[in-house]
Amino acid sequence: MRIISILIFSLILNVSFKCQLQTEITFRFGADQLLSENFNLIKNKKLGIATNHTAVLSNGVHLVDTLHSIKEVEITALFGPEHGIRGDNSAGDIIDDGVDSKTGIPIYSLYGKERKPTKEMLKDIEVLIFDIQDVGARFYTYISTLFYVVQAAAENNIPLIVLDRPNPINGIYVDGPVRNPELNSFVGIAPLPITHGMTIGELAKYFVGEKLIGDNLGADLTIIKMNNCDRNLFYDSFQSSWIKPSPNIPSLDAAIVYPGTCLIEGTNISEGRGTDDPFLTIGAPFVNSNELAKELGKQNFNGVTFELITFKPIEIPGVVSNPKYKNEMCNGIRIKITDRAKFESVKFGIKLIASLYKLYPNEFKFRDDSFDRLAGDKSVRQKIIEGISGEEIIKSYQNELNGFKEIRKKYLLY
Length: 414
Known about the structure:
seven-stranded mixed β-sheet; alpha/beta; three-stranded antiparallel β-sheet
């Protein structure tokens, strides 16, 4: 009887382990699905790939390296976004065309003199692929590159395949002013709120479906969905290792807070570039850390605490050059995420800036055009200057936000 019990227990344990293993391996990126389930779409085709260092398969091998080793396809050109194909250029660095040192494939920069693939760049391409990991904020420029790739493919009648990847800060948090038409820019390419809660595949569908790429343009668009993607989850539920999508997003926590604290870029407050924790580190020489933390403490934020700090931004090669207050001592806070499911980055960012303006009206300065482009609505800055509370500013954009949420439903894949 004891032997039978042991055998039964062993069988249950084995089945349990296999079920757990199966659960752990069922998630697959769109890139994995292309190779395993949809290879017919690219077999014997000449490919162009808009990509960067984030386009890795679940096995850790880069998509370009994998496809380059397969005889049935030919990659004729690569297209690189901001930060370059390898992701090691600082924000805003102009990037030239070049050649991939590993494969010898020509690289066209989409963050140089051109932002959209030209007819000449696309002349030898039969199928265009887009595979870049987004961060989930409207002003993160990879989705602007996506917009132009979708548009260029449609204009040149080239089939486009978008290989989907998770929204790393989850696909349900939608917040912020919807970008006004007069603030169209490379950090506001479409009428989206600051956090759109969509994947790149869903965004591509939105750009086409809402005719944002052009009224008369029809796109031959294929989205390769992820397998077993849950939009409620954060990136580390899908992949244990974080690949920095750009030099100043070194961690998932930085990505989670980024949609709110990136607004600081449009002011004379340091957003932490030049430190180990960009976007989690906020301050300036004229800030009093205790005073700021006390003011923020009145606002009952969920899922976050603050550490009082002093810091000195420095130049970091390949990450940041000439940060705000370079080599100057700054006072401020380091943001600690305690419950990311409850933390609302956009609301936090708006209230943080309203608090800084309230505390330091003589020292605090807006970089008007920059801030307005990031916010997507000039009234945010104007209301802060008028002394309107962060809570009231948040209420003021809810109607437009709710309208976007209704439109968004049509394009969700998960």
